[in-house]
Specification:
Its main location: membrane. The protein has helices spanning about 1-10, 20-30, 40-60, 95-105, 140-150, 265-270, 270-275, 310-320, 340-355, 360-375, 380-385, 390-405, 410-420, 425-440, 445-465, 470-480, 490-495, 505-530; strands at about 80-85, 110-115, 120, 135-140, 155, 180, 210-215, 225, 240, 250-255, 280-285, 290, 305-310, 325. By secondary structure, it is an alpha+beta fold. Helix 2 packs antiparallel against helix 16 (about 470-480) and helix 15 (about 445-465) packs antiparallel against helix 16 (about 470-480). The relative contact order is 0.13.
Length: about 525
């Protein structure tokens, strides 16, 4: 949360740092000969950002909610990973993958892969038919396990009872693996190491599946255990590491960005397995983990999803649908010989706008054209990177803002504010504009807030006969400072899942931040932009 808030503060310092600054500069250009320059926002913005960052570093981080560990009695036995065999004459023989997945889904389970004739297939095609001797890796709840196996007529490769004291075989052959440890609630999907009991010192997965191993953690204490391995998709303190011998199948946590294309879609609708060769193993939403009915669960912004598949497919999926890998990122950005060219173009675009050689919009548009001309960025990536929802929103609100001015609505609102609240006091009116901008930005898009508040600010300044620049700057500062809710700014939404935060957690740090921003801004605005 301090990182997200710090990023918001940093965006206030320049013209291109945040959308409200660009909107405000556009309104200023309408009544003045030119808009605000690249660093017109720096004196006030830097002052607010500097004090805010100091506050976050010294005091603010202590206000971030820290979840308490649950009692030792609160354990979760979690889900089972089972390895089964399709027997000759069984019900599963001849069944297609599509029908198999439907049956498994009805039992709240999931197919993670299969082996046929020694060949590993993580995402078998939906119309592939099962044959006798096929090996299947399934995931299921313990209470649904027997029902699932009997309904499909599948046979466990090796049946080891949880209370067995025998030395367990290779985990590639063991039918269920569960270690019971204390829950760590309200965190991201678990990727922490887990203690390995002495009864299974050499436990490791068969190479035909994930080629992973369980590691020992000195930071966690095992409360109790059963023979085997814990499924990574449950609320346990676990870590599944890749074996250096095989890196083709990996597990990756990804956070869903606010503009991701998978929002409000289910794994079933996206056809993750058939179209992209990926498995969705778990979803973490506001600190609560879900491993059931994943194929029918709609994904939301801020969710942390646990994906399984090949690194190349995962990288393509993250790029295409707007997700960001977390923690020890298995997806790595490949080295690119054209990185220097891209950096140079970006630098020239910034300098062009900063030195006033051309308008910011034209400067950066020229940079984008240069990137495409040099084939550094494909046209498809350009199209996918545009947040069309924001474009449509602004396209609708800017005419509304213009209508507020031409119809007298902005004058009416400003007059009521000055007459009944500010009572003609300039500083009070300035403070009200700042507070209104902050309040609206906590619940609606910050660019939209700026578009709505700028006509009111200009009208209020005109009726008072004071410098409108100070009022526009108040709108810019207020619209940028959305600290009270996770929906006010995409930075807040981005940390919601990974941080395990709840909706009500933000005000505990956000309210002191907004009060601090208000005080600093009200002190600096009249000095930098005299009324």
């Amino acid at each position: 949360m301090p990182v997200a808030f710090g990023a918001i503060l940093g965006g206030m310092t320049t013209l291109i740092g945040t959308p409200p600054n660009l909107i405000v500069a556009g309104f200023r250009a309408e009544y003045s000969s030119q808009g605000f320059g690249m660093f017109s926002f720096t004196p006030v913005g830097f002052s607010v950002a500097f004090v805010g960052v100091v506050f976050l570093a010294l005091i603010g981080w202590r206000l971030v909610p820290v979840r308490q560990r649950m009692d030792a009695a609160n354990f979760d036995t979690g889900r089972y990973l089972i390895e089964v065999k399709v027997v000759e004459g069984g019900k599963a023989e001849g069944m297609t993958i599509w029908h198999l997945e439907k049956a498994i889904d009805d039992s709240e389970g999931q197919l993670l892969g299969m082996v046929r004739d020694g060949e590993k297939v993580i995402t078998p095609h939906w119309n592939k038919s099962l044959k006798a001797g096929d090996l299947l890796m399934l995931e299921a709840e313990p209470d649904k396990l027997s029902q699932l196996l009997s309904s499909l007529g599948l046979r466990l490769l090796e049946n080891v009872r949880p209370d067995s004291k025998k030395e367990p075989p290779s985990l590639g052959k063991i039918h269920s693996v569960t270690l019971e440890s204390e829950r760590v609630p309200h965190s991201s999907l678990p990727v922490q190491p887990m203690y390995t009991p002495t009864s299974a010192p050499a436990a490791s997965l068969s190479s035909r599946w994930f080629d992973r191993r369980i590691t020992v953690s000195s930071e966690r204490t095992l409360r109790g255990f059963q023979v085997g391995m814990r499924d990574p998709s449950t609320q346990a303190s676990t870590d599944i590491e890749k074996n250096s011998a095989n890196r083709d199948i990996v597990l990756v946590e990804m956070v869903v960005l606010p503009n991701a294309k998978i929002i409000m879609h289910t794994a079933q609708e996206l056809e993750l397995r058939t179209r992209y060769g990926l498995n969705l193993l778990a979803i973490s939403r506001q600190g609560k983990h879900s491993v059931q009915r994943l194929r029918r669960t709609k994904i939301s912004a801020g969710d942390v999803i646990l994906m399984q598949g090949e690194p190349e497919r995962l990288a393509s999926f993250a790029s295409q649908f707007g997700c960001v890998p977390l923690a020890e990122r298995t997806i790595r950005v490949p080295s690119n010989k054209k990185a220097v060219q891209a950096s140079t173009i970006m630098l020239f675009a910034i300098l062009g706008a900063a030195l006033g050689l051309m308008p910011a919009a034209l400067s950066f548009a020229g940079g984008v054209v240069a990137l495409m001309a040099l084939k550094i960025m494909p046209l498809r990536h350009l199209y996918e990177s545009i947040d069309w929802s924001i474009v449509v929103l602004l396209a609708a609100l800017i005419p509304v803002a213009g209508a507020m001015s031409t119809t007298g609505t902005a004058d009416l609102v400003a007059n009521g504010m000055l007459q009944y609240v500010a009572q003609g006091h300039t500083l009070v009116a300035l403070g009200i504009i700042l507070i209104l901008s902050m309040s609206l930005s906590d619940f609606m898009n910050n660019a939209a807030t700026a578009a709505v508040m700028c006509p009111v600010a200009l009208s209020a300044a005109g009726q008072l006969g004071v410098n409108p620049d100070a009022f526009l700057m108040a709108v810019a500062v207020g619209a940028s400072c959305a600290f009270l809710t996770p929906i006010g700014h995409q930075n807040n939404t981005l940390i919601l899942g990974p941080g395990g935060f709840r909706f009500g957690d933000y005000w505990k740090l956000g309210l002191p931040m907004e009060i601090l921003v208000f005080v600093i801004a009200m002190f600096m605005l009249p000095i930098i932009w005299p009324l």
